[in-house]
Amino acid sequence: MASWQKRFLSVALAVLAVLAALAGERAKRDAEMTKPVATLADGTVGRFHFMSYSARWSDLAPGAYLRAPVSVAAELLLPEGGRERVRSQEDRLPAVVILHGSDGLADHQRRYARDLVALGLAVLVVDSFGARGVEDTIDELAAVTPYSMLIDAYRALALLQTHPAIDPTRIALVGWSKGGMVADWASRRRYKELLGATLVPYAAYAAFYPWCGEQHAPVRLTGGPLLYLVGERDDWTGTAPCIDYVERVRDAGYDARLVLFPDAEHGFDYPGRFRRYLTAAEGWSRCNYVAGETQLRVIATNTGLPWPQFPDYIGSCTEKGAHVGSNARAREAAARELRAFLTEALKLPPSPAS
What we know:
By secondary structure, the chain is α/β, with parallel strands linked by helices. The chain has a single domain, classed as 3-Layer(aba) Sandwich (Rossmann fold). An 8-stranded mixed sheet has the order 1-2-4-3-5-6-8-9, with helices on both faces. The protein has a 4-stranded mixed sheet with strand order 7-11-12-13, with no helix packed on it. The protein has helices at residues 3-34, 57-60, 107-118, 146-160, 178-186, 189-195, 240-251, 310-317, 328-345, and strands at residues 46-53, 69-77, 93-99, 122-127, 166-176, 204-208, 214-216, 226-231, 256-261, 275-283, 289-291, 295-298, 303-306, 319-325.
């Protein structure tokens, strides 16, 4: 081998060694970034992962979901000066946990997060799909179950309550579509007792166009106020189930409000101007029942069905295809409703504009 060839080979090997070392360092950093944190007591801000679990309904009560751990990605945003607000309980920040819908985490939720930070809130944005290898659940709702997202919501709450800059008694949950359904469910004592019995409950719950069709009797909630923001023409998750459920919640003595936006469809608060028909979407707008211990009661017919007949019932009321569409007037009104709701529920100082 000629001397120049030896020198070339020596240089090439040295370059490969450097590249391998850099790749190793990058892999080490990536592993550190995805390693789930157990606490935010050190004041962690920005992107991190936390331990959660994937579950079906049958996994919840016995804690069987603990067999399916997953490291879920999240990002914590603080308003200006938030890092320094750790001196006393009075200085601590109220916070919001954000849950996306069946389309996955989108810029839409990030825009809301920025607006809420500007309002003076800490915001934790949760990505329930990424770590589970799912882009969306539009045509396969069970790809990531609402029970998995419900566990995410309670694990996120537990973590935020360890952060020195955040007031553990003033944390709200806000969700869209599937995430809105989870926000609704998280307000129910049955789920808190299963997933967060020792935690201070969420202080408030806001749900954009959720499916409200699974109700429970009797109505037993954690006590925080609820806000439902629903499009009058929603043919995906429907309007009737939420109207019915909010009446039952109010009759039971809880603080619940539903705002129905005329001419608005599912996804009405997304930006731009669009209207689409999703042929693969699984619509449950006609599914509305009260879940009991041994049977379910179909609200439309007031008839009881044993639980073994549940799959047949869901099959009969599920429809393929649903519309999504933006509505500028409803979008602006819903943003105002959410700000006013969180301002009151989380005891924020009134904004100068108000």
